[in-house]
Specification:
Elements: H1 3-14, E1 19-23, H2 27-35, H3 43-54, E2 63-68, H4 70-73, H5 83-89, E3 93-97, E4 102-104, E5 112-114, H6 120-129, E6 134-141, H7 150-169, E7 173-180, H8 188-208, E8 217-218, H9 235-249, E9 256-259, H10 266-279, E10 285-290, H11 292-302, H12 309-327
Parallel strand pairs: 1-2, 1-10, 2-3, 3-6, 6-7, 7-8, 8-9, 9-10
Antiparallel strand pairs: 4-5
Bound molecules: 1,3-dihydroxyacetonephosphate.
């Protein structure tokens, strides 16, 4: 393991006001996104859509890493440059989603465990040779009055730690993503309680598995009310609870934290990130690794129509820039106009 290389990749991804574009939707998931814009999902339409995002002029000012799905890692720009090579040339680290999804956890009704460890070392070796310098693994934690079980959190943390150790062995920065879902009517304090348990368990397992915390990026959810909660917490309550939780559970040796958007609107995800960075005095880079919150607007603008290609790029650049400003605490709501 080359720790210096891992550290410099991690800092390049989320330092300097930069963040990560999560464009690693699996083929079924991107198909659902394309359904919303009445666009057929084919290998070529998926390639063209991703090309629109990756080749937006100036994206490398705001984006330090892009998470790709296996298919996209093997695709190329219209000029025939493989996407990983193209991104690398712009100083954007190419990354790869390596988990094979959250599957029902046997004997634990309503819970999942993320799979994909079998053969992972060999896949990482191939992904590195194709240009990937970081990876992502997403664990999913469902919340209600009785879930999650302690066992579900432990099983997912164990898998995240095994994945992380394998990534570091292959000089690939692991993005460690334990996502506590927003789905449901739970309160913000229930989200804080479950996220605290999850983060405590994740860092315990990472340490047990000899993962070097200086060579990872944490991708957590924010501490936020469930989407169907009666009383939704305000943006400043979200920011304060999230920082309180992260300061308590995330060691200072972790170089960067990059949030998932998890179903927040694009504007909410930007505002929350901005408020947290405005609070200041943070030991880690606090950035974004958004999928929907970066893509909702360019996806809709493009709508599968070649005529809207440039407008789609402009819509993407707007979200990338505003989130970069939020990374520095310099975003204001009137910038949306
Ligand atoms: P969202 O920002 O849409 O939650 O996606 C981020 C991600 O990579 C989920 O794994």
């Amino acid at each position: 393991m080359n720790l210096e290389a891992l550290k410099s990749t991690a800092v390049a991804m989320v330092g300097n006001g930069k963040g990560i574009l999560a464009a690693d939707e699996s083929t079924p998931t991107i198909g659902k996104r394309f359904d919303t814009i009445n666009t057929e999902s084919t290998a070529e339409s998926r390639r063209r859509y991703r090309e629109m995002l990756f080749t937006a002029e100036g994206a490398n000012k705001y984006i330090g890493g892009v998470i790709l799905f296996d298919e996209t890692l093997r695709q190329s720009t219209s000029d025939g440059v493989p996407f990983p090579k193209y991104l690398e040339g712009l100083g954007i680290a190419p990354g790869i989603k390596v988990d094979s999804g959250a599957k029902s956890l046997a004997a634990f009704e309503g819970e999942t465990v993320t799979e994909g460890l079998d053969g992972l070392r060999e896949r990482l070796i191939e992904y590195y040779s194709l240009g990937a310098r970081f990876a992502k693994w997403r664990a999913v934690i469902n919340v209600n009055d009785s879930l999650p079980s302690e066992f579900c959190i432990r099983a997912n943390s164990h898998a995240l730690a095994r994945y992380s150790a394998l990534c570091q062995e292959q000089n690939i920065v692991p993005i460690v993503e334990p996502e506590v879902l927003m789905d449901g009517d739970h309160s913000i304090s229930r989200c804080e309680e479950v996220t605290s348990d999850a983060l405590e368990s994740v860092f315990r397992e990472l340490t047990k598995h000899n993962v070097n915390l200086e060579g990872i990026i944490l991708k957590p959810n924010m501490i936020i009310s469930g989407t169907k909660a009666q009383n939704r917490a305000t943006p400043s309550e979200v920011a304060e609870a999230t920082i309180r939780c992260l300061k308590h559970y995330v060691p200072e040796s972790v170089p960067g934290i990059a949030f998932l958007s998890g179903g927040q609107t694009s504007e909410e995800a930007t505002e929350h990130l901005n408020l947290m960075n405005k609070m200041g005095d943070l030991p880690w880079e606090l950035s974004f690794s958004y999928g929907r919150a970066l893509q909702a607007s360019p996806l809709k603008t493009w709508s599968g129509d070649e005529e809207n290609y440039n407008a789609g790029q402009a819509a993407f650049m707007k979200r990338a820039k505003l989130n970069s400003l939020a990374h520095s605490g310099e975003y204001t709501n009137n910038m949306e106009d």
